[in-house]
Automatic annotation (TrEMBL):
Name under which the protein is recorded: Dynein heavy chain hydrolytic ATP-binding dynein motor region domain-containing protein
Source species of the chain: Ciona intestinalis (Transparent sea squirt)
Gene3D superfamilies (alphabetical): 1.10.8.710, P-loop containing nucleotide triphosphate hydrolases (3.40.50.300)
GO cellular component assignments: dynein complex
InterPro entries associated with the record: AAA_6, DHC, Dynein_AAA1S, P-loop_NTPase
Domain Dynein heavy chain hydrolytic ATP-binding dynein motor region: 1-88
A Pfam family: AAA_6
Superkingdom assignment: Eukaryota
A single GO BP: microtubule-based movement
Coiled coil: none
GO molecular function: ATP binding; dynein intermediate chain binding; dynein light intermediate chain binding
Amino acid sequence: MRALRDMNLPKFIFEDVPLFLGLIGDLFPGLDCPRVRYPNFNDAVEDAILGNNYVLLENQVDKVVQLYETMMTRHTTMIVGPTGGGKSVVINTLAQAQTKLGLNTKMHIINSKAMTVIELYGILDPITRDWTDGVLSNIFREVNKPTEKKEKRYILFDGDVDALWVENMNSVMDDNKLLTLANGERIRLQGHCALLFEVGDLQYASPATVSRAGMVYVDPKNLNYDPYWQKWISLRSSKIEQDLLNKLYTKYTIPCIDLVYEGLVDGRQGKPLKLIVPQTNLNMLTQLCMMLNALLEEYKVD
């Protein structure tokens, strides 16, 4: 029961989780199978989150653990989810937690959509037969050099996954773990290395690519926008100012966001408003906090 739940839970969106847990409850009636806790790792994750001045949320800690468990069995993992869900925080927290536990973790971030396939993988001159390394081939060769140190090296692809460039990675993502370049060179992915993909969706990825990777879905509904406000308000120096801003936030900000995204007016369901420029509720709150930073900077409340 635990294996069935823990293998599938990371892939589900917010609405599917209670349905899945209900099915598990029907299959195994009367059994309560609590989530496995890794004492040292969970403590390191919580310390990393608090050390970065983030609000400690059980859902986010569990998402880091899900990523950790997925990467224990897969050398390629995709962290999928819309903007504002905390994907970057989950990835960085994993790296920081492992480093705290003595497993030094290094991240090499590549925006694969910001360059051509030639710039990414390299090119062989057909006349002179000279080979010019690409960004990825160069990084891939460096991180896979043997090391005596106890460390992990991750290549993080931050951007859309599409067949234009990712199909060349299929041989790395499967059990072969080999990157074959145009000059005939083959580089094997070593045990201390892994591939990570941080992507909003997989609508342009082929089934061949998706089936080769472990999946962790980060839903913005688990995080929502309130933790951002809690973090921002904690940085205000005056307690009086914090209390006043919290009252205004409860009175005006929450109802306005509910009106825009849910269509709620005084508890009555209406039609959500149409946005000219699509953005998330977290984007709106971020803009509000930035404006308050600019306006309140020269005013000190004692």
